[in-house]
Every structure is written in structure tokens, then in C-alpha cells.
Design brief:
Number of helices: 7
Strand content: 5-15%
Number of strands: 6
Shape: globular
Length: 169
């Protein structure tokens, strides 16, 4: 059970997260592996019809260029970081989530998912004994699960500074 019955905001957030995950999984890989292609409207209506065309169109407007048929890497990163942020706010324990579920839903490597959670300011750690017990994880399963925690003060990744060519003069 993810949210309690009376928490309408978290229920709406969980539904929107589910829509984003379903839409992400419908996106087609581009041949050069730089971004994804948006399927045609007929396929989107067939697969995402339960969400309503207005909501699906708003997702496309939010995460793709105007009238674009593709998502470049920036738009794809934007979509995935939104999915990560929403997953943190939906959990009953505020601002922490098991990265394993998102990694499986997005079909990404652990390294990539870790990068996205760090971009939104999360700290990554192994699950504690209490978290393992709450999520029903065995001790042998724990190494494949990591917890993303949003704590204050936020820590964002450091920008790499490149030295100018030719050295100092």
C-alpha cells in the first residue's frame, strides 16, 4: 500500500507517476540511441486511452518540443528526473524511495538511475535494517536495492571545471 485513502494529493501524484511511466515505456528508441521517438497518436490513444487525450497531450507538451516526434536527450533527462522526483514524494515515508523499482520500470542501469536521483539532490545509501523490514527485503536482496533520500541541506552534483588548453600563461 503506497498511500492512505484520505491523502488525495499523494493519490493524484501516484496516478500521474503511473501515466509518466506508461508513456515512457511506449517511447521508441532512436537508431543513434540519442533520445526516443514518440509513437503516433493512434497508438498512444489505444495504449493510454484510459487517461484521456487531454492529459496525454499535456504530458507530450510538457516533455517534448512543440510538434516534435522525438525526445532529445535533454527532454528525456527532464522526464526521468520528474519521474524520480515524483517517486520520492509518493512514498509513505516522506522523501525516500527504493531505487530498484524505478530502475526496473525505466529499464535503466543502476549507475544511470543513481545519477538522476543525485541530480535532484538525493543522497544514495544502502537500506537500513528498518527499511529492509518495512519493504520485506531479505538480506541477500539488499545489495541490489539502494535508497534515495532527499535530505536538507540539498547536495547537488558538482560541475566539472575544465582547464583551458595550453595551460596557464
Amino acid at each position: 500500500r503506497i498511500v492512505s485513502e484520505g491523502d488525495v494529493r499523494k493519490i493524484k501524484t501516484a496516478k500521474y507517476l503511473l501515466l509518466l511511466l506508461e508513456w515512457y515505456n511506449l517511447l521508441l528508441p532512436k537508431p543513434n540511441n540519442k533520445g526516443r521517438k514518440i509513437p503516433d497518436r493512434a497508438l498512444l490513444r489505444a495504449k493510454l486511452g484510459k487517461w484521456g487525450s487531454e492529459l496525454v497531450d499535456s504530458v507530450i507538451r510538457r516533455f517534448a518540443d512543440n510538434n516534435a516526434k522525438t525526445l532529445n536527450t535533454w527532454h528525456l533527462d527532464n522526464l526521468i528526473t520528474h519521474i524520480c522526483a515524483l517517486s520520492i514524494t509518493v512514498e509513505p515515508e516522506n522523501f525516500l524511495t527504493d531505487m530498484y523499482d524505478i530502475r526496473e520500470d525505466l529499464k535503466l542501469d543502476h549507475k544511470d538511475v543513481k545519477k538522476y536521483f543525485k541530480e535532484i539532490g538525493c543522497r544514495i545509501a544502502a537500506p537500513t535494517e528498518a527499511e529492509r523490514a518495512r519493504w520485506g527485503l531479505e538480506k541477500v536482496e539488499a545489495p541490489s536495492h539502494h535508497v534515495a533520500k532527499l535530505r536538507l541541506p540539498l547536495e547537488f552534483p558538482k560541475m566539472r571545471v575544465m582547464q583551458p588548453k595550453g595551460g596557464r600563461r
